[in-house]
Design goal:
Blueprint: H1 3-11, E1 13-14, E2 30-34, E3 41-46, E4 49-56, H2 58-68, E5 75-83, H3 85-98, E6 102-109, H4 111-119, E7 123-125, E8 130-132, H5 137-146, H6 153-169, H7 174-183, E9 189-192, E10 201-204, E11 210-212, H8 215-220, E12 226-227, H9 234-238, E13 241-242, E14 249-251
Parallel strand pairs: 4-5, 5-6, 6-7, 6-8, 7-12, 11-14
Antiparallel strand pairs: 1-13, 2-3, 3-4, 9-10
């Protein structure tokens, strides 16, 4: 698990793939691959679209990238709480190269928002779905540089790839710095223990776990979208968190990160 994935897991536990709620109008899907009894991710097909649910790891990112490379695929439907940013970028770069549309069904958080949502040739958020950010490799890289510390290779690589993706898509990576400001990400390190691991990892302190940008903010940074149905309510968002802590989430305003 990468440092970004470690911080993601430590700060916020999202609903498992089994708990995600699909749209009532969703066609039946055919399973392509899955994890163990309690899968961390699921990959399926819905007509010409690939459907991905769950966390990004090197294995799931590689599997999704391979599935999206199929010439018969015309888009991606995703419900993900994020995970390993470089793994998400493996898939995002295929989305970018093939100019595939991305549809959020449920949530698209952390690495999903940073990379997958940003890569979409067009973006759709289905009824009550949401996109949320917290930190990213360019922001973490800047923290290391501020402290005059060596930047870990995986962070530096993720930052380069993410900046290149935003430049190719014509989006403004400034939204990543905006996200860090909104959650109160500091340059103070702490140690967290990831479930299932015994060795603590470095993490960065923040006041909140997630920022849900306002639609106007997403559009201002070049990440506009079409929404089907109603926007998410506070209850919709908190139902995804384990535990459902209202203080963990910052609901954005239209004027976020607008200077002057």
């Amino acid at each position: 698990m990468s440092l970004i994935a470690a911080v993601t897991s430590a700060l916020i536990a999202v609903a498992s793939p089994q708990a995600a709620t699909a749209s009532p109008a969703s066609p039946a899907t055919t399973e392509m691959s899955a994890g163990p009894a309690r899968p961390q991710w699921l990959l399926s097909r819905e007509g010409p679209r690939v459907v991905f649910r769950g966390a990004f790891s090197p294995a799931s990112g590689a599997a999704l990238a391979l599935a999206l490379s199929d010439e018969s695929v015309e888009g991606l439907v995703i419900d993900s709480g994020g995970g390993d940013e470089n793994a998400a970028l493996d898939a995002a770069e295929v989305i970018l190269a093939r100019r595939l549309p991305v549809t959020v069904r449920g949530q698209c958080t952390s690495a999903c928002a940073n990379a997958i949502f940003a890569a979409g040739a067009t973006r759709t958020i289905e009824r009550a779905g949401f996109v949320s950010f917290h930190h990213s490799s360019p922001v973490i890289e800047a923290n290391y540089q501020t402290l005059n510390e060596a930047v870990p290779d995986e962070i530096a690589r993720g930052a380069r790839r993410l900046r290149a993706l935003y430049a190719a898509r014509g989006a403004d990576p400034g939204i990543l710095a905006c996200a860090a400001a909104q959650i109160g990400l500091s340059d103070i390190q702490t140690q967290v223990t990831i479930p299932g691991e015994t060795t603590p990892r470095a993490a960065w302190l923040s006041r909140h776990s997630l920022w849900l940008p306002h639609e106007a903010t997403l559009r201002r940074y070049g990440l506009g979208f079409t929404r089907w149905g109603r926007p998410p309510s506070r209850r919709d968002v908190l139902a995804r968190l384990r535990p459902p802590n209202p203080r963990a989430v910052v609901f954005g305003a239209a004027g976020d990160c607008v200077s002057g």
